[in-house]
# Entry
Amino acid sequence: MTEKAFTSEAALKRLKKRRGKEWRFRLWGRAAIGFALAALAWLLISIVGTGYTAFQQNFMTLEFELSESVLAPDGTRDPEKLRGANYRRIVQTTMYELFPEVTDRKAKQELFGLTSASGATNKLRQMVYKNPDLIGKTVSVTVPASDQIDQLLKGYIKRDTDESRRKVSDQQIAWADTLKERGIIKKKFNRILFMNPDSRDPELAGIASAVIGSVMILVVAFVLAFPIGVGAAIYLDEFAPKNKFTDFIEININNLAAVPSIVFGLLGLAVFLNFMGMPRSIPLVGGMVLALRVFPTITIATRSALQGVSPSIVDGALSLGASHTQAVFQQKLPLAAPGILTGSIIGMAQALGETAPLLMIGMVAFVTEVPNSITEPATALPVQIFLWSDSAERAWAERTSAAIIVLLVVLITMNGFAIWLRNRLEQRR
Amino acid sequence: MGQISIYMMLLIAVLTIGGFVYNRSSALGKFRAARAAAGGKMVSSAWHSQASYHGYFTAWLVALSTLAVFIIGLVINGQGMVFNGLWLAAIILTALGVTIITGRKVSGTFRARTYVERFIHGLLICLSVIAVLTTLGIIASLLFESLRFFREVPFMDFLFGLQWSPQTAMRADQVGQSGSFGAIPVFAGTFLIMLVAMAIAGPVGLMIAIYLTEYASAGVRKWIKPAIEILAGVPTVVYGFFALLTFAPFVRGFAETLGFSVPTQSALAAGVVMGVMIIPFVSSLSSDVINSVPQTLRDGSYALGATESETMKKVVFTAALPGIIGAFMLAISRAIGETMIVYMAAGKAANLTANPFEAVTTVTVQIVALLTGDSDFDSAKTLVAFALGLVLFVITLILNVVALTVVRRYRARY
# Structure
């Protein structure tokens, strides 16, 4: 009888339906994972695909004749005076000599447009400033090609589009190809990207000032956030009496970890800049704001690391006559160190990627010099990415993606190091 | 903070270390002398504190007193830009005085360790209080600036007004400038983008959590979990750039093939990218919650003949619901407070619309737009940013506190 009840047509149908539901449910789970991984892959591929070409750039090696009649008609060798000399003229002459047959004014201008005008003149100016004796000599110098030519030779400006719809003329394309054949234009590793500060010209813009700014901000943030974060955790976990005030501190720290980062920017603006009168755009203020942003993360990580240490360690120390403070600082803390370090590195990685609070304290300034101290205007790598992303040109998109690749590599290294450290130190125990 | 301040700090550090070394060795010397006097038969525990505690005791006092003198000098000198011989002498003399006086106190009965531990406790309490001070600082600065704003624009007009165009109020002669600070379109835009983001992150994150905790083998979980967590580690500005460069044009192209005309900046583009960013928050928080549902509940359900998915939907999910709601609330708080994605991909025009294909603006976008560039801090245009910040802080605070309480209470139940 019962056998029949479970094998009846209706029951089998129900069973099939239920198994189908089960199968579909699992499929949904796999689809969700697939969606997340596909999104991650799309993000990475799109950025790496746009950015990897920026690590190489087209440079021109040219012979510049630093003729005295142009640079120093009065025969001066004073470096300060030579700064204002007409280097543009030299670059123009050199470029025109590449194709002597060009005489038309407009064509000459286009020819000059093959090279990075400010890149070439600045380089010559620096060389002459350092060594005025170069005047009258001919020097061989490698200067960047203009961003349009760079994009053309990398294949991003399509040759078959109509001439009026691209920024490079047919004539310029022909010249660029000839120069490439003659070996004057060559693709090389892009040192500019890493060594230069920001610039208005994409072919000259680099992330040096942003990287230095980010390092300074992180150092300030770490110096402030690490003692605060760890100290607060030790107090709450080991010494605090269980009362309302301790609970209040605890709720505060948990909540601070979830407050939107832009609110910390508003705090920095109102307190550090407006109330205390500190200057805008400096890494010191940036570091202070980010320290407040990340110390709750460090506190939470430290507390869970401290709670993970077996209580028998402290009991052992106490029974041997150590004071409570000695037991905590000399026995418990070293054992919790891997967890604390991992939490701190993850907190620092979080600080490195933070953009919005830095915008609030004015770190969006256009900084063309590498900062020397934490009280000089600087920018940070994510802010630099944000600033560059505003420009629509293809050359900027390439450079922005390259900066993002650098940022992601650093972040992955930091997180990887944190995991490696934790595994290594845990093994040793 | 001039260069002089840095040198002074270095000097204080050197003096502190000097105090430590001096008194530690003087304590060692006195102990050895006492032991020699006792015929070498004294045990080390005859002294209350170890020699290094005498050193620490001095170091603490030196550091505190010289810092006090340093700060007094800073106040008198004004920003510490001027070098002052008297200031330098005062710091050095204080350090020497403290070192010598504490050096005299070194003896077997002096409880240096007790004092040092009290100092440490005091320092730890101070560090914990910084957390409270940060919260108070946030509330005070937001309230202070917001109140200045509400003196110019009535509170109700701000909270319930339908017109948002703060830029027009820049001109003082503008008629009816107070009417342009109605924040409803901004709130509506924030809400719309949050809905789009949660429509992505909610189901996807939850399904990932369920699959990884209930179905996936340990080997699969070991690889998939960190891969998904990478999504949480990517800086938001990178998501913003992705939305701007790749995803928004994709959405536009897709909508155009369907016959819609869509602006490049749209609530949909920003919301979907933000949703992807939030997936790992939802999935890892929900995993914790689902994991803490006791196995006995599942076993009971299986014993009654339920399939795994039926157990999941009807037993585990129901039991975990409070915790999952908490996780969603934290994710919502995250979505509301997110800045860079929306700033780069959602637009700055305040449209009061429910159509996700249109450009909308959010609270965070407006804060950034109003406060970058312009540094005139008395106009209503900049002060309104703090009022928006206050609203943002209050809403996320409520969401966080409620969510944390719900999750904690839920954990306590099992």
Notes: Chain B has two domains: 3-132, 177-413. The radius of gyration of chain B is 31 Å. Residues 177-413 of chain B form a domain with the MetI-like fold fold (CATH 1.10.3720.10).
